[in-house]
Amino acid sequence: STTFTNGGGAGGGAGGFVDITSSGDISIFGTVDAAGNRGGNGGNDTFYGAGGGGGGAGGGIRLLTPNDINLNTGTLTTAGGAGGTATRGTGAGLTGPLNHGGAGGHGRIVLEDGDSVISGLQSAAVTPAEGTAGFYRGVFDATRFQGGGLTPAAVTAPFATGPLNPDYLDPIQSVGVQEDFAAGIPTVGAPGIGSTAILVEARGYPMLPDGSVDLGSPTAYFTVGYFEDVGIESLPLWRLGHPGDVAQAADNAGAGIGNLNGNEFLQVRITVVLPASVGPFDPGAFIDRWTIRFEHDQ
Q1: CA-CA distances (angstroms) from residue 22 to 18, 121, 124, 273, 286?
Q2: Which residues, in sequence order, are CB contacts of 85 under 8 Å at separation 6+?
C-alpha cells in the first residue's frame, strides 16, 4: 500500500553508442554525448519513504580514421548517470540514512588515427579521461574492415525519362565495346572471373496530370541485367536477365526493362558485389554512365 511505502525510483537508461569511421580527418567542435541517464527519485509522502533509482551506465564513443583526429575544445562523454534521490518517510523517529541510488559506471571511449596522437586531447572535456578505465587511444587498424563479401547498393531518386508512354529498350553492350554503359571492375575489387560484379535493377512510376511523379504507385523492381567479371578492368561483360550467383531480392519481380513500359519515371537500384578480401579504401566495381533508350509515339 502507498500509505506505508511507495515505489522506489526507476533506474536510468544506459547511454547509446556513437561510431564514426572516416577516410579523412575527424574534427569535434561541439559535444558527442553517450552518457547514461539519471536514476529516478523515490516516491514522496509515505510512512517509510522510498529509495532512489540507480543511474544508467555510460555508452560508447568510437572515432576511427587513418588520418587525424582533432578534438579541438569539444566534449566527449560516456559518463554514468547520477543516482536518483531517496525520500524520507513521514513516520516518527525515521532518522536513518537515505537510500540514494548509485551512479552508473562510465562507458568506453576509443580513439584511433594514423599515429595515435590525438590533437586537442588536453584541451577537450573527455569522460572517462585518458589514463582511467574505459579510455583507449591507438593506431588505426584497417585490417578489421576486410572481409565479409559485402553487397552495397545505391538507389537513385525517381527521374523523368522524357516522353509520355515510353517503351524501354534493353541496354546494348558488346564484348570489348562500351556502348550504352561506361562501367569498370578494378582488379582489387573484382569478385572473380565468371562472377557477377554489378546488378542493375529498375522500377517505374507513372506521371500525375500535373507532370510530377506519382510516388504512391511504383511498380516492383525488375532486373535490367548484370555485369560479369571477365578479367578486363575497363570492359566487363554485360548480360541481360537475372544472374544465377546473386540472390534475387524479395521485391524483384523478374527480368526485363520492358516490364516498365508506360511509366514516365524510373528509379534505378545498383548493387555491387565485393570480394571478401577487399579493404575499406579499395575501389569496387562502378557504373559511370548509362544511356537509357526508349521508343514513343509522341
Answers
A1: 13, 19, 20, 22, 21
A2: 9, 41, 42, 52, 98, 100, 101
Task: Provide the greatest CA pair distance for the chain.
Answer: 95
pLDDT of residue 13: 65
pLDDT for the residue numbered 1: 44
Beta strands in 7-134, from DSSP E residues, in sequence order = 17-21, 26-27, 31-33, 49-50, 60-64, 69-70, 75-77, 87-88, 108-113, 125-127
Average of per-residue pLDDT across 192-213: 94
238-259: pLDDT as tens digits: 999 999 888 888 889 999 999 9
- 56 burial class (0-12, 13-18, 19+ CB within 10 angstroms)? buried
Q: Determine the Cα angle at 9 with ends 3 and 15, to 5°.
A: 170
Using DSSP's 3-state secondary structure scheme, residue 219 falls into: coil
Residues in the chain: 298
Cell of 119: 590533437
SS3 state at 98 = coil
Task: Fill in the amino acid letter for 154.
Answer: A
CB 68 within 8 A of CB 113: yes
Alpha-carbon distances of 133 from 21, 119, 205, 231, rounded to whole Å:
23, 21, 55, 51
